[in-house]
Amino acid sequence: MRAIQEWRLEAVCREPEFSEPFKTNPKRAKRICNTCPVASECFQYALIYDEWGIWGGTTFKERHSMISNSPQLQADLIRQAKSLGLYESRFSIVDYLDRSRKEAAESDLGLIA
């Protein structure tokens, strides 16, 4: 993955007229992502750094579902996090998945939106 500052400079959402949907209109934000030349790098970043919100055309919940359903993606994320020195300090796929399962259960019970 390119350095963060490089790909973020090319992100469509950096333009002021596109920033508001990412806070208020997820469907519109996803459509904006579909036009972005760095959507795949944005998506990878969100997976590795466990970001909330819409990144690379996906929501937090969608990314969790992808990870939960793909042992290969889980292994890739662990490898990438370790290579970046994030696995032990900030990012733990086990914690990430445990939190995802807890939130999904709470959502199913109507405890969270």
What does the model show?
The structure is a single chain. The protein is mostly helical. It has one domain (4-108). Helix content is 64%, strand content 0%. Helix 6 (60-68) packs across helix 8. It is globular, with a radius of gyration of 15 Å.
Distance between the termini: 33 Å
In helices, the fraction of residues equals 55-70%
- Approximately what portion of the residues adopt beta-strand conformation? under 5%
Helix-strand category:
mainly alpha
Low-confidence segments, given as residue ranges, are: 108-113
Q: What's the shape?
A: globular
Mean of pLDDT: 77
List keywords for this structure.
113 residues; mainly alpha; 8 helices; disordered C terminus
